[in-house]
Amino acid sequence: MESLVIAGKNYSSRLLLGTGKYRDFAQTRAAVDASGAQIITVAIRRTNIGQNPGEPNLLDVLPPSQFTLLPNTAGCYTAADAVRTLRLARELLDGHALVKLEVLGDQKTLFPDVVATIEAAKILVKDGFDVMVYTSDDPIIARQLEDIGCVAIMPLASLIGSGMGILNPWNLQIIIDNARVPVIVDAGVGTASDATIAMELGCDGVLMNTAVASARDPVLMASAMRKAVEAGREAWLAGRMPKKVYKASPSSPAEGMFTGTQPPAANS
């Protein structure tokens, strides 16, 4: 199967996994291994990657030599905070340029502030970052973010941590059909079928955290998500049969079928 290409780098996995909400770093690593994910998101404001000396460091468990780390701005509510956070991440990760931008507009719903997101994206792209951007499922905003120079568009399926799945497949389809960069569903996935549906729509990948970390068995759910993303991608590549309302079509043709009955005898 063809690779996912982001900012010029190839990835065999189309599942991106977050590192928050796990019991401990050991469980985080076990879930990442089970998922097969190669791109791992890290909330700079909540996870130690070296900014807190003496505390457990995520990089000891998920070293950059084995994974592509994706610093994100979870918890940022202004463009200035988001930009400052990602500049810190670049320093901590020795010039690392690939980042995930999210600027939130509401503490209760965690819905993105698209105006502030656009503002921050312009600054970060100009500053040399490769920006993957969390946004609403508005096709116009998605196009504007792509035009700014973002390397991936990441529309929500539903609210962060809600597990509600894909609530508006029509808007996602418009974004997918018009995008020239990868489209990765970010937020709202609750179970494996949600991930499969996203991939069947034609998304290039799926990013999740809560759906795995908050499962009864996170490691097993990570394995399920890996299979779901792969199955959805294969189904999209294969091309589903057309839907037919009120029209049945047997799996096996009936023409020429031996029925086991004899034709009626001719009248003498």
Describe, in plain words, how this protein is organized in 3D.
The chain is built from 9 helices and 10 strands. The chain is an alpha/beta fold and 268 residues long. The strands form 3 sheets. Strands 5-4-3-10-9 form a 5-stranded parallel beta sheet. Helix 1 runs parallel beside helix 9, helix 5 runs parallel beside helix 6 and helix 7 runs parallel beside helix 9. The mean pLDDT is 91.
Name a few traits of the molecule.
268 residues; alpha/beta; five-stranded parallel beta sheet; three-stranded parallel beta sheet; 10 strands; 15% strand; globular
Q: How would you classify the quaternary structure?
A: single chain
Helix content: 25-40%
Spans where pLDDT lies below 50 across 5 or more residues: none
Mean pLDDT, as a whole number?
A: 91
Main sheet record: 5 strands, parallel
Rg (CA only) = 23 Å
The largest sheet has its strands arranged as 5-4-3-10-9
If helices are DSSP runs of H or I spanning 4 or more residues, what is the number of helices?
Answer: 9
Structural class: alpha/beta
The H/E string reads EEEHEHEHEHEHEHEHEHH
**Beta strand count:** 10
- Proportion of strand residues: 15-25%
Shape: globular
Distance between the termini: 67 Å
